User: Fold these one by one.
Assistant:
Number 1:
Amino acid sequence: MISRRDFIKATSLTGIGLTIIPSGVLFSKEKDEVVRIGLIGVGLRGQNHLDLLLRRADVEVVAICDVQQRMMDMSKDMIKKSGKAMPQVILDGPYGYRKMLENKDIDAVIISTPWEWHTIMCLDAMNAGKYTACEVMTGATIEECWQLVHTSERTGMPLMMLENVCYRRDVMAVMNMVRQNVFGELIHLQGGYQHDLREVKFNDGVKPYGGGVEFGEKGFSEAQWRTQYSVMRDADLYPTHGIGPIAMMTNINRGNIFTHLTSYSSKSRGLHNYIVKNGGEDHPNAKVKFKLGDVVTTMIKCKNEETILLQHDTNLPRPYSLGFRVQGTNGIWMDVNKSIYIEGRSKEAHRWEDAQAWLDKYDHPLWKAHAAKATGAGHGGMDWFVVNAFVESVKRKTNTPQDVYDAVTWSAITPLSETSIQQGGETLAFPDFTSGKWMYRKNDFAKDGTY
Amino acid sequence: MISRRDFIKATSLTGIGLTIIPSGVLFSKEKDEVVRIGLIGVGLRGQNHLDLLLRRADVEVVAICDVQQRMMDMSKDMIKKSGKAMPQVILDGPYGYRKMLENKDIDAVIISTPWEWHTIMCLDAMNAGKYTACEVMTGATIEECWQLVHTSERTGMPLMMLENVCYRRDVMAVMNMVRQNVFGELIHLQGGYQHDLREVKFNDGVKPYGGGVEFGEKGFSEAQWRTQYSVMRDADLYPTHGIGPIAMMTNINRGNIFTHLTSYSSKSRGLHNYIVKNGGEDHPNAKVKFKLGDVVTTMIKCKNEETILLQHDTNLPRPYSLGFRVQGTNGIWMDVNKSIYIEGRSKEAHRWEDAQAWLDKYDHPLWKAHAAKATGAGHGGMDWFVVNAFVESVKRKTNTPQDVYDAVTWSAITPLSETSIQQGGETLAFPDFTSGKWMYRKNDFAKDGTY
């Protein structure tokens, strides 16, 4: 986060406005004032956010909106149990959210809807003058990414993609180590999304996870919409959990940018096999051809000459792993073997040591400050932090710590990887969504006094 | 290995001669006859081979050749201690090996010299009618690779690159599992060479490892020649340990081929930093610019649509790891966390389990048969196997289990990755060194009755 003084300095230094509301509106709210939030989409993911917001004294949930009665009922139950006031409830088809945006009393919205709705909802929200948070994947095409940037710049409304892994406790500890030069100069980083999603992509239409091989209209929750991406697109469909933390560690859009990218995709077997095994060869879905390769590998090069490797692996039986690796001139951390090696500090030369003592020692100040509050929140506590960062940004009327440039830079990996694969593994230039502002922007993410 | 009948069948089936000596010479030696071998290069690596050969009753070392008195003295001591007859000793400059090749009593040669000598020595040896084994990296350019193929095909003399990791015990167990369909259909594989070589690339000119920051003329052993590759070439300089086993598991040159490749290289810091730290900023080598990026990442796609990831990482402080990963439709093995997961067979869903019990259960028949002999040989016993495979091939006058097509296909990754990096991460077509024979060749590597 940037302070007002730094913000003004940065703005005048560069001669280019940052994405931020006009300065007259800055600090219009006191830090302890209540933020009024509307939720667009209260499916299972939106309900996680709803739960977190209902626990906060500094937030009033003033409106919720969805397209499904079942999800709305679940959300209303949750609100009743919380003892908070029932917000405006909008169940009025896919564009019902636009009614919410007309409400002048809403400061901010959180969007948790199927991916294909993210861009239009973000655009509408920013155009309505709302601080906008959106679940991961903002911009399904490069053109959509540019639209989001241009709209945020024009309206001055921040867009924050809710990439929670930037706040994972071990990841933040490692970022802390990076900043304290434990790894020396960074050389190579890895991350990805290696998660057997077969029981997310298919279910019985009743339960959210597994129990059947249905998707689309006959599926429930994510299987209703997410699986279609595996049918239609061969790409790294979900790069942000891996790239978010890596981008923050390597100062992407803040003194560094991605310059080019290449993706390779393997054969596609896992989803079809799953259908045949669990639904039989005669199940209609056994005829579906899935374009998504089972393992998609992406290499990215940075302006400052670091290399980054991303892996997307969601169709095969495998243990969950985001596959992080952070490697510099002094040493290396990997999460798959929970190990670290730092030259001259690790006890034995050439030997891995358990990373936990290091992660404890370098526990990030934000985690030290808020661990008690975060405990019990989704995904090991990191959901608390990402929602908190958005709420605190709205309260202070500052830019969000992950901003529109991050949102689209990380999301753009999907369409870029798709094009690369489609062209037989061709290498593509990476767009500079900051249009040169990366040369002057500073990395304040999760630094002292921020959130 | 192929039997004579299979060999003839394969040859007539394809209409193209395999690399093999003319059939009139087949089986000219009985299986228990003694093979006469000459060693070209008896530096530290050649001395490993010498030691293994001196222990064998079926081998007579009839000549040794080197360019350094010190290495020759060490080798002669070793021979004296073995009680075997002193072979012809050739210490006559870099082309002294050609005298050895004139000796009609030599059946085979083993070449263990600096990389830049491999091609010419292999060509000369095959042209002299010798079975030829060569240490890893055969062919520094694509043109050299083709020369080796054409010469082997024209002379009928096999060329075996001594890629020992194909015989690593855990790797062979995993290959055994691949063949027994434990992993299902293979989807994605990884390997590489992740080995902190700073004390190999630099020494004090006396000891082979470390103790100084000298290389080239002032260095000793590998530092005399190998380090210059880090100065001059930005490439995956050492791909064969990773790709050899992966190629055998995916039937490369035997029903499958590599189709294209892309490499990215990181900034280069590790070697310069090492010199400054250990030799001071004023050491003359502190002025050397190393072209080799610290981490080089290469993606390869196969005709049968598997993806392969290779990593080359030799300049930074890090624990040794070849980084193997074998992943199929049923599960995944990784060596960095010594873990495996096989759907329906691993005890807990979505959880890694220790791989050792699986590696023991699927211990390869070759290891079961020869573990006692291999124990004590270099690199955990695998050196025994690779030398044994060569000796047994010479005895039987069959093709070698790793043959000229493997040697150049695996080695070609270096020049291809160099070109890709030079062109900014461009994607390149992979040459088919078999000229179509891959469509008909069968994978007999380490199958029953072979070696």
Number 2:
Amino acid sequence: MSEIKQVIVVRSDLGMGKGKIAAQVAHAALDAADTARRKHPTWYDSWREQGQAKVVVKTDGGEEALEELQKQARSLGLPVSLIQDRGLTQLEPGTTTCLGIGPGPSGEIDKVTGKLKLL
Amino acid sequence: MSEIKQVIVVRSDLGMGKGKIAAQVAHAALDAADTARRKHPTWYDSWREQGQAKVVVKTDGGEEALEELQKQARSLGLPVSLIQDRGLTQLEPGTTTCLGIGPGPSGEIDKVTGKLKLL
């Protein structure tokens, strides 16, 4: 099995604090992993065996950028999870904060997120 | 069912960047949630239905503090996951970075982490 990883893309334009970012990223990671576990169990199992690699990157392109990345990832058959904040603190309710992609084959995910910088 | 939440405790003494913190917290969240899904499925299901609340807090007490919190959480029967970094970037291999507790009943988790400050 090739390298399996998960990438989480965070909006850098919202000014979220590091605790807020961590909670939103965890939410995306868990949701996307749950989808993978159900729809792509071999990816999920390999990812867990390999140490569940996660990479956190950023975009300054706002909600539109996350939606475009989601569309690209879906078209490649990758599990995705777009996270909206419940808005109890810091942000307006329904604000899109981050996008989880994978676990899935590293090369496929790189087609979507390969140009984004690390958070 | 009472309120179910997950708390992730992060070491604040390591000087981790926000992307590093987010990845480590996601790791802890996923591992502890996976344990809950297998051992406490009613907690896990309720947590997911309630919106999978996550709270990220910090300790400056180093590895010893995380281990003590882990012991307390275990003694209450809560799912826990203590995360060690693989040390490929930023940290020495095997450095303990954070502790995931729950999902579990909010009141039980507060007995362990109620005095810790938000990250």
